[in-house]
Fold this sequence. Notes:
alpha+beta; four-stranded mixed sheet; 3 helices
Amino acid sequence: MSEPEVLLVASRFKVVREFQKTSEGSRPREIVRHPGAVVVLPLLDDGRVCLIRNYRISVNQSLIELPAGTLEPGEVPIQNAERELIEETGYRATKFQKLHAFYLSPGILDERMHLFLATGLTAGETAREAGEEIDNLVVPWDDAVQMAVDGRIQDAKSIVGLLLVDRLLRTGKIDPAR
């Protein structure tokens, strides 16, 4: 098996060409190699959730999302979750619970998203990066879930996070009060 051919190196990912062995031989596949990321579901004590409105140049619109961010070199997911929650929302959490890890688009991308539930929240100042166009959107839990279902939320990681946590809450698998 040959070494991957590096096609592009960017600040947060690289694109490589690898050859997949098949019954007919091998075929080239271009893959985006990514260090991984976290997505945080900030659940306030009163049952509301803190979403964000985040401008995404790739789709030329502001999307409603859960806070998230790319892992820095050497950073473990829980550290990233703590940092991104503060940076993007200003909230600090007393408890983070890792709920799941999943791939967003494994046909072309190896990015693994680590989903955390953040509770025991206290509001504070954000630490947004230069150029980030983000606003908090704090909504009742049922409204956030409805937004995921009816298409107002179009971001996959946020849909996954909201619907998974909704299921876990409704079946008693998680209790944010604990």
